[in-house]
Amino acid sequence: MSAVDLTGQVALVTGGAGGIGAAVARRLAKLGARVAVLDLDAAGAQRVASAVGGIAVAGDVADPATMPAVVARVESELGRLDVVLLNAGIGGGQSGVDALDVDRYRRLVGVNVDHVVYGVCAAVPALRRQGGGKIVITASLAGLTAMSSDPLYTLTKHAVVGYARAAGAALAGEGITVSALCPGFVDTLLLGAAKEEFDAVGFPLLTPSDVAEALQSVLADGQPGEAWTIQPGGRASAYRFRGVPGVGGGQLPPDVVLGRV
User: Fold this and answer.
1) Catalytic amino acids?
2) Which of 40, 109, 149, 173 is most solvent-facing, going by the fewest CB within 10 Å?
3) Strands, E, within 102-215: which ranges?
């Protein structure tokens, strides 16, 4: 694992009250950063922030007003913003292939997708003021393959992986690195009842600390637009995307920038 020194820097973690978010907040603080912890759970955010010497912010990441207000507060209270982990996320909770609860679906997209777009758009001006920075989006292996047990969750994670790849290319020239982190199944509350099924068959799970360690590797070595994977017993690494067919049967590079025709 590569060394990272965040002394004097400021980080923002969404969904930071527990699970991956809390583990990442602790890791970032250990690396020297002042950490702002954002979560809908105000008390949980305060517990984590107090433990790492940071600040807590309560808010709904699916609300388009939240991320701009949070970034403004971080800059006001901590003086700058250098690292952003857009980590808040929820599960689909329904099939999405033969029936649909529209309210639950809109909530899923609001938290898993809209929040990422709101977060990037709010953070980029602050990062520009520092001459660059890093944005990492917590995606999932479900963003790289089909998870038939939760098609709607799969939809949202494919969306944010694609967004990270495109936004990474768009911002690379400004010293702003946007990338995605795609862990396998992690032992958090998001697993719900599936946790018992995994335990029953001895299926290995990642810990939130494993994901926080992988994040450190992304911060150290990640390149714009990459999607990094981590699985139990393995090391974090950048996923190798295949190219797509081009005109005349050739193959376009995996991260080609297509101009407007």
Assistant:
1) 153
2) 173
3) 133-138, 176-183
